[in-house]
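queue> holo job accepted (alpha-D-glucopyranose)
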Amino acid sequence: MNILREATRLLEGNRRMTNGYQYTIPSAEHYPYQWLWDSCFHAVILAQYDPEAARAELRSLLSRQFADGMIPHIIYWSPGILHLFRWGVEGTSSLTQPPMLAYAAWEIHRRNPDKKFLESIYPGLLSYYKFLIERRDPRDHHLIGVINPDETGEDNSPRFDAPLSAAPDISYKDHLALRTKLVDENTACNFNAEMCMRNFFWVKDVPFNTILVENLRALGHIASFLKHGDGEHFANLHAELIATAMRDCLFEGGVYWSATGADYALLKVATWAHFAPLFAGLYSTSEADTLVRFQLLNPDTFYAPHGIRTVSKQELSYRGEGYDNGFSWRGPTWMAVHWFIYRGLLRYGYKKEAADIRDKSIALLEKSGFRECFNPETGEGQGARGFTWGALVLDMNDG
Ligand code: GLC
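queue> job finished
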């Protein structure tokens, strides 16, 4: 079967409806709930051929927004299956995830304008981004903190080994135990971000902040279109402030690094986070050129036969084979990462390199199916099956 058709079928098959809210689960077998950034990916894909379903995906996310503006990273629409992710209040987690909502909303609008829909979600969007900027940056330094690695969507990435006190060769089980302990600490301080960050885990992550910059710009477009001058000013101002702070505090040796603690100690583990800022245009043309030539396309670091490694092969923590065939962010290739890099490359005009990422993505799906992640050296699939992120190949085009 044609891979693109299979992608649309998978999204349809994973579609669920609870209490009048429609959403798509990432994998029926492994992830039977709604996840925040996953749903934004689904919305971006669906925007191309089923805008009503794309809009539903965002409406259901916003339906569980907290009073302070937070949007939880998981909504347990039908509880009782998985206990592992039971973090926080009734029915949802108390963490968030990379803030792709405004990008998804603008993408839906770009392809299929619907002013009423944008108007209906605008207050929720604005209060979510205000929450991130006000609550996750208590010192007004313009870098947004995460309180747990799971908020970055890259649950066991070695970027977070130092703040978690994890060794490079830590097992999946031991890593999960560290994250579970952190969730207990987060719970004990009632998910109060300032307390959680100061006492337990305070990371200013590169992909998270990059995604925020690009999403604030999308929010700026939405606010401008709806003629909300204040919102437009807020969004554009903070996009600029964060981009500048990233340059001042997270940029060293030609690349961006995530940082930890009050003093921004750089977390010097080479991961795909170096490439994330391409997505928001945060490198100059010549910096991007060096990065693409000497890192992205370098077989000794990131460029593997079957895809881009999420961790450089030079890192002690690199493990392309993953863990016991489960998911891992310690090297395997992930489709969302391919998508961010694809979009970043196109932004800088690297058409050939972007097409190569798309071809490799399709080849992985053809070889191993819609798996959660893939061994970049062999192309073997790992983790969940029937995982929706593969459908992002539908948005790997220059339309
Ligand atoms: C895994 C991924 C996370 C994703 C979730 C649901 O935990 O690491 O990014 O949101 O699965 O697909």
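queue> The chain has a mean pLDDT of 95.
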